[in-house]
Design a protein that fits this description.
Elements lengths: L2 E2 L16 E11 L2 E12 L3 E5 L6 H9 L5 E7 L11 E4 L13 H9 L10 H12 L16 H12 L6 E5 L7 H18 L2 E5 L3 H7 L2 E5 L3 E5 L1 H5 L2 H7 L4
């Protein structure tokens, strides 16, 4: 779940030249006769944060699931490295909006990592074998002090940072964030975005973020994609926020 394996239009074959990026070409999803979205063409460059915005039901989360390969879709996805060599599918990290689990269960953070990072049953090996790796993973999201904390005792922001740490092992080429701070308090929200900005700069990964928080999008995004069944606008936050289609959907923009 946490690991699996978006400049609009892809007008030029050279858009990804000399920089690594993920190319999404002609993506579309239909359920019966219902079109969830169609003709989505995007280039997502490494070292950039792409914010995916739009009204409820626009197809945003389904697009991420299509990128992950979890839903049937049309189109192609290719990863190109900095030497402009096609290297197939990127390594993808994924952080969901929330994690459903029994909050009364005596499962700790390290237990979760052991279950996700090992092919063997948790009870068959000692946490000592994986503890150093987990500590390093948690340091990336400033959460190493939570390694023994029970999952049910974590705040919303702490839990999302734990899920982010999982999504970063191994370090992905493309990181997908599906409204990861929905319902998180202001301090947790600010810390999460601070960490994401650091990851973008230090790890040179491409990041796609679904968000309804236009203020945070304006502050942090390098490019913005307005999606409502298809791409309606794309560009810098300033360009998209001044677009008439954006104003029609969201009204007055910040």
């Amino acid at each position: 779940m946490f690991k699996s394996f978006l400049h609009h239009g892809a007008n030029s074959a050279d858009e990804c030249a000399k920089v690594c990026c993920t190319k999404i070409k002609n993506f579309g999803v239909k359920v019966g006769n219902l079109t969830i979205f169609e003709n989505v063409n995007l280039h997502v460059h490494c070292g950039q944060l792409t914010a995916l915005i739009g009204p409820n039901g626009a197809g945003k989360s389904t697009l991420l699931k299509a990128i992950l390969g979890e839903v049937e879709h049309t189109g192609e996805l290719n990863y190109v490295d900095a030497k402009n060599q096609h290297t197939g599918n990127p390594i993808i990290g994924y952080v969901p909006q929330y994690l459903t689990f029994d909050v009364t269960a005596p499962v700790s953070v390290i237990d979760l990592f052991m279950a996700c990072l090992s092919k063997n049953p948790v009870w068959l090996f000692s946490s000592k074998k994986i503890r150093k790796r987990v500590v390093e993973d948690l340091k990336r999201v400033r959460a190493e002090h939570l390694i023994e904390r029970r999952l049910g005792a974590l705040s919303g922001g702490e839990l999302q940072r734990i899920l982010l740490a999982l999504a970063l092992d191994p370090i992905p080429d493309l990181l997908l964030l599906d409204e990861p701070v929905s319902g998180v308090d202001q301090n947790g929200l600010d810390l999460f975005y601070e960490i994401v900005v650091e990851l973008k700069a230090n790890e040179d990964m491409a990041i796609i973020l679904i968000s309804h928080d236009l203020e945070q999008v304006a502050k942090h995004a390098d490019q913005v994609i307005l999606l409502d069944k298809k791409i309606l606008a794309a560009g810098t936050p300033e360009e998209v926020f001044s677009n008439e289609k954006m104003k029609k959907i969201f009204g007055t923009i910040i």
